[in-house]
Every structure is written in C-alpha cells, then in structure tokens.
Amino acid sequence: xxxxxxxxxxxxxxxxxxxxxxxxxxxxxxxxxxxxxxxxxxxxxxxxxxxxxxxxxxxxxxxxxxxxxxxxxxxxxxxxxxxxxxxxxxxxxxxxxxxxxxxxxxxxxxxxxxxxxxxxxxxxxxxxxxxxxxxxxxxxxxxxxxxxxxxxxxxxxxxxxxxxxxxxxxxxxxxxxxxxxxxxxxxxxxxxxxxxxxxxxxxxxxxxxxxxxxxxxxxxxxxxxxxxxxxxxxxxxxxxxxxxxxxxxxxxxxxxxxxxxxxxxxxxxxxxxxxxxxxxxxxxxxxxxxxxxxxxxxxxxxxxxxxxxxxxxxxxxxxxxxxxxxxxxxxxxxxxxxxxxxxxxxxxxxxxxxxxxxxxxxxxxxxxxxxxxxxxxxxxxxxxxxxxxxxxxxxxxxxxxxxxxxxxxxxxxxxxxxxxxxxxxxxxxxxx
Length: 432
Prior knowledge:
alpha/beta, Rossmann fold, seven-stranded parallel β-sheet, globular
C-alpha cells in the first residue's frame, strides 16, 4: 500500500511542477519555505561524527509553544545530544527562531529547519541532512511517506502530547484500512488523555505502544515578568494605568466581529474598558481594520510607531510572539477558535498569569482542559456573542469575582503539571 502512496505523491509532484515557479513568485508564505520543504537549500548542517541527534517537529505556532518545555527537559537530561527542530509553517519557523535561536550561546537547539513535503525525495534529502537517532512529533502532523522512510531506516518515531478530536477520529475511520498508513509505523504514542488513547487504539495502534502521559502544556514555564515589565508591555500596547483590558487571543475569521460587538456592549458599563485582538494569523490585521465596525474608536496595530499607539481603544497584535506575554496586562481573556468551529486554543497562556478565561463552545481540541477549567471554576464557557457580553459586564461589575476565577485558573495550571516527566520516562527506552 505504501508503494502506491509514494507513486501517487510522485505523480502529484510532477503535476504541480509547472506551477511551482508561479507559486514561488506570488505567495510570500510559499516563497519562504518552498525550496526548503522540497529538500533543496535546507540550511540544515550535516550530522557530525560520533554525535546523537533528536529531531523535534511541531506543525505551527501553537505546537511550537507547547514543545518548549519538552525541548528544555530533553536538553537537560541529554546535554550531549544535538536537538534539531523543524516546523511546517512560516509562522511556526519564525516562532522557533524567536524561542530557541540556534546561534545563541547555550541554545536549546543546534539547528532549525522546515519539515519536508511528503514526497519521497524531499523526505530522504532532509532525513539525510539530519540523520536523527529519534524523531519526536509534537501533537500532530503525521505523514505516511515520512513514517515509512523512518521505519525503513530503523529510526523510532514517537508522537508526544498526542490528541484525537472526535472529528479527526471520525475522519480517519472513514478511510478504513488507509488509516494504517498514518499510525502503524509509530514507535510510541504518548496520549494526553485516556479518551485520546482509546481513539488511537481504535485506529490500529497496538495498546503496548500507547501510554497516557498527560498534557505537556501544563508544564510550560511561567513567564518571569516583573511589575516594570508588565507596565512596559502595557505602554507598548498603548495603554496607561487605570484601564481595564480585555484580550481576545488566537481569533479566527468570523470571530473578531462577535468579539467587537460584545466589547461595545460591555464598554457601555465601563468606558475604561480597552480591547486587544490577536488574530491567529497576524497577516489578517489589515483586512480586519477595513472590515470590522471600528468607527468612533481609536485603533492601532502593535508594530505602528509609538506616537500612533497613545491612548488607543482597540489594539491589534499584527506580530507573533507577543500574545503569550500580553496576557499579563489584561483583566480577563477570551481564547479564540471557540466561537467558530475551529477546535479552540490553549487556555493556559492567560491562566499562568492568574487571569479568568472565557471561551466558546467549540473546544473539541481541548476537551479535558475545558472540563478542568469548568469544574475548577477557572474559566467560563459562552455560547455566543450575547453570552460573552453578559459575562464581560458581570466581571466588570464584580472585580472580586473576576480575581477569584483567575486564581482558580492559576491553581488548575499548577495542579496538572508532570506530563514532561512521564514523556521522558517513556522515551528512555529509545534514547539510553
């Protein structure tokens, strides 16, 4: 079956070949990584003699952020191993360079690159450059061609922080025996929850290769920000002391308009309320500035000159790497991808600062985390923009209630750490 898959992808490549120059010229995203993902000009250094390499891969920004505590733990436990990190998207690649720049003395990683397209020659070329002793895939991004090459070369592949939404499980089950291409070659699956583990077992992964290790997101380091740092962040966002700030993070198309309308309604309760919107794709900010109902508000973008950001009402984060810290300045946060059907995003980024977390009903990618936050009264689920507006008004009226929910959110974060140790314990069999 895998032979037919390789033949199919080879045919796809030759069909697309005439269009690649056009794609390279018209798409800035593709221009940034097209050649590297084809295995050309990878900029990945060849493996040195008598060294061992760990290949860590994360799809995009969210997975890169999740992987940081894992990389830190791997480097601490295996200091002589070289860690090579890859991402699939341009924003993910840029986030890796920001978090773990390889040129910095004492860096966590020795090299950063792009994950290859699932064409046999691209996978072989990148694998030859990296020559890993083990591959750690964080959360997702499974490709049959890649997995078959690793299996044939005897390189173990472990899936860390693995999760399966009901939608994904249904999709894999619909393709029947073809699902084996995605899972049968995995050496180990470290699932976030028992429900995730059962899903992988239903897809054909042997039970002895599956272990429930927990969610490594709970092991992310708490940002060490001083009061001066937080004041500086607020100034960079165009805010001054006394303002009450709401952050809507990782929003998707269709969601920003709902957030704006809820904000407008809540602001009638307290005119000191300010809003920060951080789209999941920062490149959407110019479109949002044109399309959203922003009349009567002073609006700016984070990368604007400082004089344009004074006393703003609504700030758009048009860059990556700022949101995780920006939650420190807010009074309450809304986590996007949840009022529209996008599976939701990580609730822990605001929780680590003790901020109450609001989120919509579409949180299928974070089911267990949602249960923890609802049961522990550290977060509030809202079904639509009207419910969001009501909760914002309630928090504005009751600051003590707001603080109590935030303290509960922080406690949930602290109480559920430990997944990294479980993962390292499972990986010892492959690394020692």
